[in-house]
Amino acid sequence: MLTIRKLVFEVIIGLVILAAVMLACAMFGSQDISFADVFDADTTDYQIFFKLRLPRVVLAGLVGAALAGCGVILQAILRNPLADPYILGVSSGAGLGVMLAVITGIGYNFLAGSAVTVCAFVGALGTVWLVWIIGYFTSGTQTTSLLLAGVVVNAFFSALIMFLTSIAQSHQVYSTIFWLMGNITEKPSPVLYSAGFLIIAGIVLLFIVSQRLNLLAFGRKQAQSLGVNITRVQFFAFAVSAFITAVAVSLSGLIGFVGLIVPHAVRLIVGPDHRRLLPLSAIAGAGFLVISDTISRTIVAPSQLPVGVITAIAGGPFFLILLARYSRKVSWYK
């Protein structure tokens, strides 16, 4: 039996491990720094640690937590083990927003490319709501129609992105290529505070409905017989997940597989109870992306790889294994 005390203990242990991982990863980079000097404001090590590496590590942790947490929710409400935040077209929507911003020159009208971030957020959020509207009004079987609508919208917007890329100038394409592959970069403190508040608040809201998600695992009829308003729960969970995903994608670009592989790995350890699975997956997702980003900025130092390349290398084989298991109708809740 899961108790509040046990859950709090597990979350605290997970947060302690995550803090240790983030601290260790912040010490690694193309330039060696001394732990004894990072707390001396007069040293270069202090500037590197607190101004460059730590904000980047924190951002990677927030994005990883958002994507993994949303992956748990989408797999639950869609009852599909292969679902992740990008299956509903959020990646193509964000990418289309970025391409439109860059080609029209909006991205150069504000400092630090902030307009690109805003356009990515609007594109991602608008796309998932378009998918929801199409799925909701075209079929009574909402989970199936959502998946199909996501595939169609994703394909259509991907075609538009390729068209815009073909007519864009070379410097415009180069400025977006890293973003489209997923890239973590340093962000100002106000951006980190705002993103952290929105993502953590969203995960807390999703945790509130985690018990109802457990009931959905038994099927629509069984959940309804137990008093669950399926449409309301799905709408709420989908809305919050879409918002969190849009925030994460607008800050980091298109980082795939985090929302797919992390929830499954955590499920193998802690089981299918979403009251444990959601917070622990968010913590594990944060650690996974922090480590992946550390690898991406050190493996070919002083150059850097897009972190999306690292997650794709790790997630590709895992996805194929899941696909093979799912095609053989192996229960993923066991």
What can you see in these coordinates?
With 334 residues, the protein is an all-alpha fold. The protein has a single domain (4-327), classed as ABC transporter involved in vitamin B12 uptake, BtuC. The protein is 75% helix and 0% strand. It has helices spanning 4-27, 44-77, 90-104, 114-138, 142-167, 170-181, 189-208, 210-216, 220-225, 230-252, 258-270, 274-298, 307-327. Helix 1 (4-27) crosses helix 2 (44-77) and helix 2 (44-77) crosses helix 11. Mean pLDDT is 84; it is low at 108-113 and 330-334.
Write the layout of secondary structure elements.
Blueprint: H1 4-27, H2 44-77, H3 90-104, H4 114-138, H5 142-167, H6 170-181, H7 189-208, H8 210-216, H9 220-225, H10 230-252, H11 258-270, H12 274-298, H13 307-327
Helix pairs in contact: 1-2, 1-12, 2-7, 2-10, 2-11, 2-12, 3-4, 3-5, 3-6, 4-5, 4-10, 7-10, 11-12, 12-13
